[in-house]
Design goal:
The complex is a heterotrimer. Chain A is an alpha/beta fold. Helices cover 39% and strands 24% of the residues of chain A. Chain A has a single domain (3-94, 160-240), classed as P-loop containing nucleotide triphosphate hydrolases (Rossmann fold). The longest helix of chain A is centred in the last third of the chain and has 16 residues, at 172-187. The radius of gyration of chain A is 18 Å and the shape is globular. Chain B contains 13 helices and twelve strands. Chain B is globular. Chain C is an all-alpha fold. Chain C has a single domain, classed as MetI-like fold (Orthogonal Bundle), CATH 1.10.3720.10. Chain C is built from ten helices and no strands. Chain C has helices at 2-14, 17-50, 56-66, 71-82, 97-133, 138-148, 150-166, 169-175, 185-194, 198-230. The model of chain C has no long low-confidence stretch (mean pLDDT 91). The chains are: A alpha/beta, B alpha/beta, C mainly alpha.
Chain lengths: 246, 269, 231
């Protein structure tokens, strides 16, 4: 499905310049500067509390930085929002059928009524949930709901897909199913930006790694060299599993 | 502006119900008159004859007259002549007509702590009640009955506002609730015969004093002055006033009985 | 007590025309009030839940406080407004069922609004990030949430209905308890009590309670069914 690639590179690259975020008197992110371009899947690694989730929300626009700038190539923030999608650690579904939830997202994105059903069905098929299309979304299992969240994102044909620890609450088989869908997104041309603390998953899905430690961007490398020859001491410790919770 | 439209919509909404299509007048009257059951007996006869529905809002006499002063009634039918005459003098009524009278009675506990049972002299009885400090339940609500009670205390040379003690219970409520209170605490109370006859929660109360001329209770009827309030339904209101003092209306009043006993005595001239 | 219970059963089974008239009017008035109050309170509660503006917390406190509006005070204020001597006298609404609906609507609006606000705010906490990610905020978000939690809102609506059908102070003052026109269950009970006919008053009271219990049971069943279906 390369319709996603057709969404012309309107948003990327994403530029963060000196981005800081503080809350409740605490500094959570400290002067993050990075440029995220199209192509390789970007995995954001770090221990719990390192600031990964906050960084994701800043990039997606759910939070505003307390200092610094975040710019997409398209200065129109409304349009920029429409070309992104985000999947959270816990899927949030409305009290409607699985299909209706996908259609809801399409309606919110302003997709024409005639298009919505077709795209919804196509998305459900892509993630393997067609047989559960009419089921109330909230009675589905955790893994099924997360797949539904991905279907909801798929239907929007986003240019960028943010994923915040999408499998942290799931069992191994559900995790595998999710990873399959993420790979499909990647293959179709959607830029993946995923936060995780699952090292195996990072290696399976990521092309490049952004390593965050105590609110700072410590290292950025291709995934293979990050795991084989980490450039920083913190990264090395993290990989060895010795990094204390931040 | 939006609020007014809301009310308009609401009143239209309810106008759709048949009850609002009816021709009707609003009569401000007293709780004692309504609770005696007179209206239930009297009004259907008038409605049958004229097709005019009579809606009675029953309050204390003072409140009924106040309501009419605000223009919320077409006719008043109350029993406190001095208050009615003031109402007239202030320009709120057109003309006052005597309609009927009934009487007040003093009810009290069977045990009769003030020893007033059987007497005909209400003034002496009240003096005895005060002397014995026997419990007394007063309406205290600006009603015709309350007004009459205050007049009687004056005749008994008692400044009740100053001389009342814990034995004097000011309930601030209608005749029924006051009788409920009196029955509940074995107290004396002044009540109109009509309410007493239809009152079911008597407890140990019996009639202590009756028959004194000073217990005479006169009812009057007035059309609210359309010059003051142009919206007053003057034709229908006048029709009601005229009928109530007509021979037919007066006979109907006389025919109303509870347990074979006549409650109200028509005396229109 | 037993006499009153038997009296209540006798009243219901005899299908006394007067009783039916009073019950029907009571339902008309209270259900109409619930209808209008809900129409106004749902958007109000949802708006306060989702929007952020200066003085929001003060408004929430006010709404919660107004849940305890004394019915008799509401009745008095509405009376003064609708009286011929008052600002809205020209509509001639005083002593009609319409006036009773107005008074009860004002009385229960804060209850439904405050409870709606609480429910919508709880839902907003859960849905906020996802909805904003999908580009849904403001009015759109409020409406989405209202529809999503519609069965929970039933509880708020029922609370309003309970208050409306139980109160006597407001309807007595603005309605005038006119026989055959504005006499409802609560004012009839008050009247019969003051006439000393306590058994009848008690029986009517039991009928009123039964009615309210029935309505609540029906709503509960609807909620349960929805819960099982939608999760």
């Amino acid at each position: 499905m390369s319709a996603h690639a057709g969404a012309a590179r309107a948003l990327l690259p994403l530029r963060l310049d000196g981005v800081c975020f503080a809350a409740g008197g605490r500094t959570i992110l400290d002067k993050i500067s990075v440029e995220i371009g199209a192509g390789p899947s970007t995995v954001i690694l770090g221990a719990n509390g390192a600031g990964k989730s906050v960084l994701m929300r800043l990039m997606h626009g759910l939070l505003a930085p307390t200092a610094g700038r975040i710019d997409w190539s398209d200065p129109d923030r409304g349009r920029a929002r429409q070309l992104q999608a985000m999947v959270f650690q816990r899927p949030v579904m409305l009290r409607r059928s699985a299909r209706a939830n996908v259609i809801f997202a399409l309606q919110a994105a302003g997709i024409a009524r005639s298009e919505r059903e077709r795209r919804a069905d196509e998305a459900l098929q892509e993630v393997g949930l067609s047989h559960l299309a009419g089921r109330p979304a909230r009675v589905l299992s955790g893994g099924e709901q997360q797949r539904l969240a991905l279907a909801r994102a798929w239907a929007l044909h986003p240019e960028v897909l943010f994923l915040d620890e999408p499998t942290a609450s799931l069992d191994p088989s559900a995790t595998r199913e999710i990873e399959t869908v993420i790979k499909a997104f990647d293959a179709s041309g959607t830029k993946i930006v995923m936060a995780t603390h699952n090292l195996g998953q990072a290696q399976r899905l990521g092309d490049e790694v952004l390593f965050i430690n105590q609110g700072r961007l410590v290292e950025r490398s291709p995934v293979e060299s990050f795991f084989k020859r980490p450039a920083s001491a913190e990264a090395a410790a993290f990989i060895k599993g010795e990094l204390p919770w931040a | 502006m939006g609020l007014m439209r809301f009310f308009l919509a609401l009143s239209l909404f309810f106008s759709l119900s048949s009850e609002a299509q009816q021709r009707f007048i609003t009569v401000a009257s007293t709780t004692s008159t309504e609770q005696s059951g007179l209206f239930k007996y009297l009004l259907p006869v008038f409605e049958q004859k004229t097709g005019i529905q009579v809606r009675v809002v029953a309050l204390g006499t003072g409140q009924a007259l106040d309501m009419a002063r605000r223009g919320d009634a077409d006719v008043v039918f109350v029993h406190a002549k001095p208050l009615e005459e003031k109402f007239l003098a202030d320009g709120f009524g057109v003309k006052r007509f005597d309609v009927m009278y009934n009487d007040f009675i003093l009810v009290g506990p069977k045990s009769d702590p003030a020893k007033v049972g059987g007497t005909k002299d209400i003034v002496a009885a009240l003096q005895k009640v005060k002397a014995a400090q026997a419990p007394f339940a007063s309406r205290g609500d600006k009603s015709g009955t309350h007004f009459a009670e205050l007049e009687l205390w004056k005749l008994a040379d008692v400044d009740i506002a100053k001389d009342k003690g814990p034995w004097y219970r000011d309930t601030g409520s209608g005749m029924g609730p006051t009788l409920n209170t009196a029955a509940g605490m074995d107290a004396y109370a002044l009540t109109d015969r009509g309410t007493w006859l239809s009152f079911k929660n008597r407890g140990d109360l019996v009639i202590s004093v009756e028959g004194d001329q000073r217990l005479f209770n006169q009812y009057g009827v007035m059309l609210v002055n359309p010059a003051k309030y142009p919206h007053v339904k003057k034709e229908m209101g006048q029709a009601f006033v005229d009928w109530v003092i007509s021979p037919e209306g007066q006979k109907t009043i006389a025919d109303y009985k509870i347990g074979g006993e006549q409650l109200f005595f028509p005396n229109a001239r | 007590m037993a006499e009153a219970l038997l009296g209540a059963i006798a009243l219901i089974t005899s299908w006394d025309a007067k009783l039916v008239e009073i019950v029907v009017l009571s339902l008309e008035v209270s259900l109409s009030a619930v209808f209008f109050a809900t129409l106004l309170a749902l958007p109000l509660g949802a708006a306060v839940a989702v929007a952020r503006f200066p003085g929001r917390h003060a408004l929430i406190v006010l709404l919660n406080a107004l849940m305890g509006l004394p019915p008799v005070v509401v009745g008095l204020v509405v009376y003064l407004m609708l009286s011929r001597a008052g600002p809205l006298g020209q509509f001639g609404l005083l002593f009609t069922p319409a006036a009773m609906v107005v008074a009860q609507t004002i009385l229960i609006l804060p209850i439904i609004a405050a409870l709606t606000r609480q429910a919508v705010e709880d839902a907003w906490l859960e849905y906020q990030e996802q909805l904003r990610s999908l580009g849904v905020s403001g009015v759109s978000a409020a409406l989405t949430l209202l529809w999503d939690i519609r069965y929970s809102l039933l509880t708020a609506v029922l609370a309003g209905l309970g208050r409306a059908s139980a109160e006597v102070g407001a309807v007595m003052i603005v309605g005038g308890n006119i026989d055959g026109v504005t006499r409802v269950m609560t004012t009839t009970i008050a009247l019969e009590t003051s006439k000393g006919d306590l058994p009848l008053a008690l029986s009517l009271g039991i009928v009123l309670i039964l009615l309210v219990v029935l309505l609540n049971a029906a709503a509960f069943a609807v909620k349960e069914a929805a819960q099982r279906k939608y999760g």
